[in-house]
Input
Amino acid sequence: MRTSYPILASGVKPKMHFSPSALVFLSLPFGQALMFAQWSPLITAAWYFPLLAPLLVLVKPQTALPIALNRLTWRGILLALAVLAISLAVYPEWPLRWVQMIGEYQQVIPAMMLPLGPFLLLAVLFPRDPRARLLLFMSVLPLRAEYDLVPLFLVPSSKRQMVVLVALSLWNPAQFLFAAAGYPWSQGINSYHFYALCMLLYSNRATVRSTWENVRRAAGRSGGFGLAGDKAMKAAYRFLENPRPARQTLRFDRD
Output
């Protein structure tokens, strides 16, 4: 697993130039992945090296699928099929063994964890945004612990967002609040997804405003949401009409 870290580093820092994506190495999920020798850093690297994505689905499908579904290439698919054929020839029983191990897998599905989980499905509003698709797939597929969340740090689209997400991973207020309220500690894992969702909504605020306007028009034709609901909608709409000026966003993935 040691080779996964230089591969990820070469992806986030092309030509030895600093990229905000490199801040992922300071995040708590990356530190846990390093401590427990997990696959998630190499799976994250597949975002920059698509050839690896289908192959890693054979290793850890629940974590690699969100990357692979965004980075499918014919060469990657053929490589994965070749490795699959060789592995079956060497050890034909491994799929049965893998199925038996699924029953022992302790998992959580972020989108099904209240109270934040259902909000994660809002990522479906941006089907053309690969980072939105990544967040959506990571929300509906099972994960085990925070070390599986390294690919989530591909969602931020600016240096400021990346700094905020890394800082929240080091001190996660939502997770402490859930624990204080009596929720199990794992309940706060989807707070990472919720933070990423907020960044995604801000980055796509033009689409959010358009969708909100369509909802308002539809509500007007049907009689509105009531006095309190209408006031809340107007306040949110004014905020979306006059957001704080955002700095120029940075592209993290390689051309």
User: Anything to note?
Assistant: Residues 205-222 form the longest helix (18 residues). The chain has one domain: 4-203. Residues 245-255 have pLDDT under 50 and may be disordered. The CA atoms of residues 115 and 223 lie 29 Å apart.
